[in-house]
Amino acid sequence: MEKKKLLGMTLCDLKAVATEVGLPAFAAKQIMQWLYNKRVRSIDEMTNLSLKSRAILAEHYTIGCVPPSDVQQSIDGTAKYLFPTENGQQVECVFIPDGDRATLCVSCQAGCRMGCRFCMTGRQGFGGNLSTADILNQVYSVPGNEQLTNIVFMGQGEPMDNLDAVLKATELLTNPDGWAWSPKRITVSTVGVRKGVERFLLESNCHLAVSLHNPFPEERLAMMPAEKAYGLEELMTLLKRQDWSHQRRLSFEYIVFGGLNDSERHAKELVRLLAPIECRVNLIRFHQIPDTPYKGATEEKMVWLRDYLTKHGVTTTIRASRGQDIYAACGLLHAKTNTAI
User: Which of 114, 179, 265, 311 has a C-alpha 20 to 30 A away from that of 123?
Assistant: First the structure.
């Protein structure tokens, strides 16, 4: 009989486990602390459980951490790791060191259903949702995880399309008996799945990042098929109702394509759309992928767009591109193999 994984279980789940194997109820909290606070790799390390209790638990359960099956190292220090998943797929996550900060970009699905024209993950198709254990394993098992200062759900997949697993993962990352991180260290992205965003805003205090990429719905639809089901206008109405002046931060990701969404017309519409909201825009230069008509904007146009938006009341930064040489930069994760395309 295959053993079940403890990784990804909440305190409530672990209480059920304790009951199932005949351990006292208080053992659930002990297991949780060993699992997430101390990040043990085996049940034998849970030394405040009796030898008998550990043996009983180990008969039926395992920690569930799985090491990466491959790694690529960028010249800029970024590392891309390939992880197996419970459903037999493979996903990539990216470790991005930056001075005294280190960010992990995690995946929540194998592939993606959203089908954005400019994204390698979207062009890969959909291979299935990741479990909470699959998501947390990327954090648990990535080398150097003790250095992490931030986690972004910006890898493969649409987080709002696998929201149960994503919310459970962020709950465990922020639970005082889990990883005990502040929600301010975690950002979850979305193309704008409205029902998912509504639920996320109610159930999580983590930051939200919206993949915008074009302020005109009809032009956005040509780039992002999800616009048809999850329209920009309805999303903006929802976001404008929220109070963004306190703990939670709202940002908009805007990939800049040369000659496509970098004109003054686009800049003016971005100001109209975003100036009424407390938010930040992150400009990302498009990274070329095979068989696509899109091209990246020039450095001059990136700087112009940043300065225009900032001057007109929309705080804007240009995000540094990391890991492009190993296909680890924004929109390049694909996990068909862990090699350059």
Answer: 265
